[in-house]
Design brief:
The chain is globular. The protein has 463 residues and is an alpha+beta fold. Helices cover 45% and strands 18% of the residues. The strands form 2 sheets. It has a 6-stranded mixed sheet, with helices on both faces. The chain has 2 domains: 204 residues, Metalloenzyme, LuxS/M16 peptidase-like (Cytochrome Bc1 Complex, Chain A, domain 1), CATH 3.30.830; 202 residues, Metalloenzyme, LuxS/M16 peptidase-like (Cytochrome Bc1 Complex, Chain A, domain 1). The N terminus is likely disordered.
Length: 463
Amino acid sequence: MLRQALLLVLLVLCALDVAAQGVTLPEARRVELENGTVLLLNEKHDVPLIGLRAVVRGGAATDPEDLHGLASLFSAVIEKGAGERGAAEFAEAVDSVGGSLSANSGLESITVSAEFMARDAGLMIELLADMLRRPTLSRDEMDKVRARRINFIRAAKDGNLNALMPIYGAAFLFGDHPYGNPVNGSESSLADISHKDLLSYFEEFVGGDRLVISVSGYFDTAEMEQKLNSAFADWRAATSPLPEIEPLAPQVGRRVLLIDKPGATQTYFRIANIGVAMDYPRRAELNLANTRFGGQFTSMLNTALRVESGLTYGAGSSLIRPSKPGSVAIASFTRTEATTEAIDMALGILGQLRDGAITEDALQSAKNYILGQFPTGFETAGQLAAIFAQLESNGLGPEYIDDYGAAVAAAELESLNAVIDEVYPAADNLVFVILGDAELIREEIAKYGPVTELAISEPRFRP
């Protein structure tokens, strides 16, 4: 047993030593076509697969104020028929060769992800070009997707409230800023989207001038470049400029949104403020802090609220980092009668974090956790294609990845605490979103700040 234990320790130390050296991205050929489309080509011949990630800059941040969910609806409908293929034929073309092809929308982009066998590279490019350049955009398919999404929101209000809390949270924290837009829309905004709106979105916000195509895997670089050039070089530009997203300053003071769900036996809460952007220079220290605070099962939040007190089945913290400052948040839930006890405990843990509660041992544990997981995100062709596309779309260089492991390994408590003080909000500057039975918790949560109420039956996420 002792020999096995020593061997296990040796293997772990070896793994950490490799991880501490970080990840060095392989080289990718960058080509910019005449219409502005950027190609990123990373040739690797370990397995006969090709991973692809296409990014169209825009996303939910381009949605008109009364048509939230438009970009996301577009990304779903382009899977439902393109080129000469209807919805069933398009899906069959992918499935018949064992490939995968899907699209989705985020805050600042629409992405298409694909993985095909190397021998089917031509079909992959054909299908991608049809999706982006020649989508059918069927009215019937749009109506089906829209109806499913509205029903999903309604179902979530009955049985999956956790899925809605980040949406309510962003809407209340950011207000009418683009980062407050519900990516998949609300009941009311989805209902207002017309087929004409979908067609207009395609013309105005989707085009070759804001497209990045990243490909990694088993191919010849010159041949892949030629195929993509033929498929995309003559694609028109989008007709409307991308909106300029202004950074939002951290909110001063406290305010509370109470979402009333009569009869609820649990209270869900989210406590947040404005955080930092993707290019935050000390992200190694920030990720270490968040890991210990609420980013793993043994974190400070989960240990206090779940393991030690039994107030919840889970508590954690999150960092949303788009191109401009996003959010830093605490989230959990508890039984109705323990609402303020759980929230007060979460606030107390936040105070401990800001007072320097992370020890040297805890910092080392967080380093081991991050360095053990970080390299696993760069193993497959699909993962590499995704990271190359992400870096290009956000104006970041390879050092964003190459230097990260060393930065994590070198982080010290002094710099960690400086980052915590800079990013994590003080107790007086917090935005609360609390969902539960308002009649039972209204009076006691008033101590957290001025309360705005919104009924969960309202077909929108903003008060």
